[in-house]
Amino acid sequence: MIDRVISVDEPDFKSVKQTAENHNILHVIPKSSYLLPGFTDLHVHAPQWPQAGLALDKPLNEWLQTYTFPLEAKYQNLDFAKKSYQSLVKELLANGTTTVLYFGSIHTEANLVLAQICADMGQRAFIGKVAMDNPDQTPDFYRDNSAQEALEQTEVFIQRLQKLQKETNSELVPVITPRFVPSCTDETLEGLGQLAKKYDLPIQSHCSESIWEDQYAIDRFGMRDAEVLDKFNLLTDKAVMAHGTQLSDSDLDLFNERNTAVAHCPISNIFFGSSVLPVRHVHDKNVELGMGTDIAGGYSPSIYRNIQQAVMSSQMLQDAGTRNARITAANAFYLATVGGAKALHIPTGQIKAGYKADLQIVNDQYSDVMSNNENDIFERLIYHTTKSQINEVYVSGKQVINRGENNGK
Ligand code: GUN
Ligand code: FE
């Protein structure tokens, strides 16, 4: 069995058609099937899976308080957690997603249930115990009761996940996870920055997702959201910040200096982002970008759907007057593969010697009736692939999905 792959050149965001031309997709037997790198999803709220596609009718803060916090609170119940997480992890793998950066809930035990399921199903998973202890912004029924509790439970989770990783010999990594600045007290933000340093861990949070969040940081700290995170040592080269639709040029300079990445969540941003993230501009500012579904601010578990939306949103941004905003399918594919891998510092996302064999075998449904020019095939796969066309998925060379076995279900 291979756990590393054999082949080709560095894909590059700028060279539009290079992904296909570089054979980052490879033709395999049987005819009309293609081998693509598995996707990295840089932003999933695992406990929100039961409301994917529901309850998207309110702005961010009202959505959190009305629907999302009550749902996440249910993960106290481990039977509920197990059923929901088994469904989610299976669904993401079936959609070609081989690496995921997960927000869990506040509950240490339920987060470990998620970790065990990822280990059992063979998904590479970065998982965070959500820290949220600010009584002004979180409900009594769903909060860490104090900064001390948030920090203690984060540390317990780190140690138990690392133990589980060793016992199962799986690809699990704990992540420092302040929900976002409004949810946390200063003491928690400070302590989480210290824990990230102590254990040398990745960090995830939300930054400047909405006009509301941006203004909140200014009202509470007299600083921009990114500056607040930086003040607490939460912008590092291992940090991934979701959304960033409201990031200013000075924020992007700060991200660049700290080598912090952005998780672009194009479907979710339509509902909560207050605008479209200017992907090309962020890329030109030398800030690393990957792709995120943001389940369940985004309703779809499919990175294909998010790639499609990233291209469509960029076109609308250009139509609304932003020059040079448009990105291509190859650019968005780069985010979902190479970009996400770089953000997490793992050798995946490319079909290339020495890289992890994280792969998907995808059927090209329309080869009989459409152009078989190589770039056309690539775009067709990007726009038409659903999980029904993803026949096999591999993580580090181990098969994790085989649709033949499931009779196509
Ligand atoms: N900001 C804080 N929490 C959340 C969340 O659960 N989803 C999104 N999209 N933004 C958030
Ligand atoms: Fe989110």
TrEMBL record:
Chain ranges passing through the membrane: none
SUPFAM superfamilies the UniProt entry points to: Composite domain of metallo-dependent hydrolases (SSF51338), Metallo-dependent hydrolases (SSF51556)
Broad enzyme group: hydrolase
Domain Amidohydrolase-related: 34-400
Pfam families, A to Z: Amidohydro_1
Cofactor binding annotation: Binds 1 zinc ion per subunit.
Catalysed reactions, as listed in the record: guanine + H2O + H(+) = xanthine + NH4(+)
Its biological purpose: Catalyzes the hydrolytic deamination of guanine, producing xanthine and ammonia.
NCBIfam families: guan_deamin
Name of the protein in its database record: Guanine deaminase
Lineage of producing organism: Bacteria, Bacillati, Bacillota, Bacilli, Lactobacillales
